[in-house]
TrEMBL record:
<dbReference type="Pfam" id="PF10604">
    <property type="entry name" value="Polyketide_cyc2"/>
</dbReference>
<dbReference type="InterPro" id="IPR023393">
    <property type="entry name" value="START-like_dom_sf"/>
</dbReference>
<dbReference type="InterPro" id="IPR019587">
    <property type="entry name" value="Polyketide_cyclase/dehydratase"/>
</dbReference>
<protein>
    <submittedName>
        <fullName>SRPBCC family protein</fullName>
    </submittedName>
</protein>
Amino acid sequence: MSNAARELRAEVVVDAPAERIWEVITDTRALAEASPELLTMMPLRRGGFRKGQQYVGWNRRKLVVWPTRSVVVEADPPHRLAWDTRSSGARWIFEIEPADSGTRLVQRRPVPNKLTGLSKAFAAVLLGGGEGHADELEQGMATSLERLKAIAEKR
């Protein structure tokens, strides 16, 4: 497994109940506001985050903008949300669990099978390389969680 396909992880403790954090992570506007890379995430059908729901995401890194297609594979409110990004082969997971001083929000990005050839070529040509982009993604996940924490604690 290349360094680009390693599991990425970030976590933060939030001073808010799990239900409020769930509201925030299932608000596509909040996700885009919090993310350094995600511009927007649009559902292809009505009904919000539920198993089988599909989303088109628009991402950006500097001058490069690209679409992704994702399918929700797990929605267990207010504990776990996961979607597979078909264009890259990555799975994005949010986990919400009790913590001593609040509620822990974890974001992980495993690659259950392998990164797609399209994803590898795209990262190599337009994103400065897969391994470097994975490092940026992991840093961006930490930034996103801090921003989601701020949103949840204000609501």
